[in-house]
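Format is sequence with structure; example below:
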Amino acid sequence: MAGKLIPPVLNKRAANNNKDPIQTTPQEMECTSADQDRSPPKKKKTPSKPSMLKSADLFEVTAAGTSREVSKLFSEFAEVLSERAAADASQMKELDVLLAEAQNLESYLKEKKIHLKQTLALISDKLQG
């Protein structure tokens, strides 16, 4: 049971009695821990600010570059759409002109058909009569 009450560090030292001539007693352990409490605390390393600034600057530079690229792509896309819209409008005008010409031609041909029927009917009446 006495082995269970001894801290693990002391337990290992007790097991190594044959190899280690110096033994640490519980009183020495308390003194050592008390001395550690009086010693100034060790400074923890804080994340270096230059690296944080560099990564923040890198992010801002990357974001700005990406923003410029996206803006450039949008403007190119808008320009292409504008050109395409202008070409479509031009084609629509051409199609409107062609449609008007086709309608005029259809109307002319219908009149010619009616006139031809009248002429053939007149010839037929003269031949029969």
